[in-house]
Amino acid sequence: MNDVIVAPSSAPPSRQPPLRVALVTGSYNYIADGVALTLNRMVGYMESHGVEVLVFAPVGPRPAFAHKGEVVPVASIAAPGRGEYRGALGLPRGPRERLIAFKPDILHIATPDILGHAAQRLGRRMGWTTVASYHTRFETYLKYYGLGVLTPALTGLVRRFYNACREIYVPSSSMIDVLKAEGVTAPLQLWPRGIDTERFTPLARSQAWRTERGIAPDDIVVTFVSRLVREKRVAEVADVFARLRRAGIPHKALFVGDGPERAFLEREVPGALFEGHLAGDDLPRAYASADVFLFPSDTETFGNVTLEAMASGLPTVCADATGSRSLVDAGVTGFLAAVGDADTLYESVARLVTDADLRRRMGQAARARSLSFSWDQAMSGLLARYEALAGA
Fold first, then answer.
1. End-to-end alpha-carbon separation of the chain, Å?
2. Which end of the chain has less neighbouring CB within 10 Å, N or C?
3. Domains of the chain (ranges plus CATH)?
4. 343, 323, 339, 305: which is closest to 233 by C-alpha?
5. Residue 149 pLDDT more than 50?
6. Contact by Cβ (8 Å): 186, 166
7. Considering the entire predicted model, what is its pTM?
8. How far is CA 258 from CA 137, 213, 244, 278, in A?
9. Residues with Cβ < 8 Å from 132, sequence gap 6 or more?
10. CA-angle at 33, arms to 383 and 384, nearest 5°
């Protein structure tokens, strides 16, 4: 059975002096992706419980949102071909001296990039307790950009990085299974994500929102919420919508998010609605105002968007892959299709679009399942692990 970060019955006792945690990450405040938002929530929680946190990360010209905590910028450049992301160039002298002076009780590395490796080497020299969290399946991205031949080498590099850590915090049990199969032997702790079920709720559904976009009360909206990039398998999303059109099944296609593949989707899915990046109340309103959630990505470690859709009362059709298979109860809250199985993906969406009773039952079951994911439990469990390691 996989180890689980168990939340204590009450907040962990405060330490004297306060616990100090240095967070080193490749994404924190220059883009509002799942990694950045999760880590910001973590930093906010830790600081509210008396933990001193210092974040070391690349930054952009301006923050994408109001971030939590103090950020020490590290040198970085725009990622080649993906300018919305930045690649850290290492741990330069200034940030390195700041990190040494901070004297962290816990060095938490969130990304196994050049910066993460540099921080890990420094932590080894200084004798710091170094842990890591697993967020992104970088090695799975390569096949979408014609670099699949490099996958074994990158997998080996990642394995060596994580095996040099004291503990690794992994968001789903399915991802733990994959890491074990790939030879990661360091202790793996399950650190699931949570969901704000008061924010993401079926009650956010708005017919006024739908009407403003030309969506009639009886229109069935199939939505895809994500960055619009190849590794989210957007070609399969376009294929599902093409098959629905050819079969004459009435529906509306809704895309929430942006990215370099938007032009491809605009061309391949005529008449689709593109909302771009949404935040605040706009995002839960868009989820709840749809009817079916489609997400064939096989690169997720957890599936934040899948859980948000479930909390919003949507039945989900996802790839039977890491992340989604730990969230979707196949046949109850939605459907799972084998990665690359375009027929099952289409057939599952078509069933939900044409069967109102099935949509209702699965949507209700999805909402009920989402209620078991608590941010407070997830974060208090992580703090308990920090305290245990620092005390040891």
1. 24
2. N
3. 3-193+374-391 (3.40.50.2000), 202-370 (3.40.50.2000)
4. 339
5. yes
6. yes
7. 0.84
8. 20, 18, 23, 10
9. 108, 109, 110, 112, 116, 161, 162, 165, 167, 168, 169
10. 5
> Amino acid letter at 277?
H
| Residue that is written with structure tokens 């910001």 in the block | 40
The single residue listed with the structure tokens 């109102």 is 356
Q: What is the pLDDT of residues 225-267, one digit of tens each?
A: 999 999 999 999 999 999 999 999 999 999 999 999 999 999 9
| Mean pLDDT for the chain overall | 91
> Does the pLDDT of residue 325 top 70, yes or no?
yes
Please report, for residues 108, 279, 357, 379, 390, the alpha-carbon distance to residue 12 in angstroms, rounded to integers and kept in the order given.
Answer: 19, 33, 46, 11, 12
Instruction: Copy the structure tokens of residue 147.
Output: 């670099």
Classify 345 as helix, strand or coil.
Answer: helix
Residue 71 corresponds to which tokens in the numbers above?
Answer: 């950020």
Q: How confident is the model at residue 322 (pLDDT cuts 50, 70, 90)?
A: confident
- Nearest partner of 119 among 24, 35, 55, 52, judged by Cα: 24
